[in-house]
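Risk register update: the risk of archive-format incompatibility is retired. Evidence:
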Amino acid sequence: MACRYPHPAGHPSKNISFMTLVRSSSQRGVTYPRWLIIPATVALLFLIVPMIAVFIRTPWTDFFPLLATEEAQDALWLSLRTCIVSTIIATLVGVPLAVLLAKNEQTRWAKVVKVFVVLPMVLPPVVAGLALLLAWGRMGLLGRHLDAMGITIGFSTLAVIFAQVFVSMPFLVLSLEGALRSQGDDYDRTAQALGASRTRTFFLVSIPVMFPALISGVALSFSRALGEFGATITFAGSLQGTTRTMPLEIYLRRETATDQALALAVVLIVLAMAMFALSTINPHAPRRIRRRSRIKPTDSAASETQIAHLAGQQKGKQAPSIHVDARIAERKVDLQVDIGAGSSVSIMGDNGSGKSTLLGLISGMLLPDDGTVSFDPPGASVVLLEQRALLFPHMSVLENVEFGLRAHGVSRENARTTAMAELAIVGMSDLADRPATQLSGGQAQRVALARAMAIEPDVVLLDEPFSGLDAENVERVQESIAARLSHANVTTLMVTHDPLAAETLTEELIIIRAGRVVKHRPIASDKAKQGA
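Archived output:
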């Protein structure tokens, strides 16, 4: 097979074998200039050689006796105690600050606040200590009032903690804020759409999802606190057993007791390396050994018997009708459409025509500049299934489906029974105990469908649920959707580019062009025309 590749003007085009291109690329093995290895090696040696020198010069035969002295022990345990406390404080107040900065990154106040977060990282340590002294010292801006109440901070162990928090917290905040910005808030929106409160979402979804970045930030913060010197000696002084941490002890012993300074330096380096190793742990990575199953052998069969019960619960519900008369100027859409109660509707149109915007308006994720979106009867619950399944990565399949039920106050036992029934309908009950990160794309979509339907929504919105799936998985997901919706009394809207899927799963068709609904008709009429 040959492909013709265009060449710049003045160069004749050639027929180049695709296999030849692949072979030559694999023979090269790399995609960067090889000369980069030279400056990279220089940089690496510049960082590594000083560490090697410390380990070479350390008197290993006397290593433990050097650390057993009273001064070394006081400095070691004081550093560990204060670093643990300061890291806990930095985490408790730094995580909320990182979240607020990430969620409001475009606002002016967030940009101003971020400047003050960065400042302690770039200030000379002695300036940081002076600033702390002027704020919290006995004659400081705030310290004078505390001193009047009998609370003294300067030149105490508490001052050490203050200094460590001041210089280390920015590392946690900035690393976590960057990770949160790149991660987005899709998982949070999904949890809240399933009925979870903002607080429940924060503790059960946001924190577990951000946990790898949180571990990294905590490790950086602890390491920076462990090595803090300048601000500590300026604000806390150097009192043995009270404020003299390991960096200060190393500084004092570097000339009079060099061997002891080297031994303490090795401890600092090893602790920093250990914290770095901790920061590389990813709790969401696939596990080699599956955790012990929480699913009883009888659960799957029992769930099958609940399918009819689920259908009976839905029969008494009244599916809502939907009236849309809304405009969004930025997206150039003016959508006007009425969708009957219990309808199943496919939405088709060119990319960017306004299909997903219609779903966003109905789900409440988008607000119109003008007009309204209303339901009859009002107060309808709406779930939106997007192209990505967005299963919570720290939960199993069963826990994902249980999540919305538990958020609505359903007991754990009833939530599990209902979740297993939902999984049985979409053919996923056998994988109930599998981590969500170990599912294929088609399997994840089927679990997302079960999770959404478990909370008994009134309106189901499907935004290209087959996108990115192979033919076999498309068929399985279509079968799951058809099976589940057949047991539900809901109003369904599905955005799709597949006419066959529209014909198979829905009864009506809406066509949108350039932000306007141009057609809304029964699909049955198209079938009749084809039959004639």
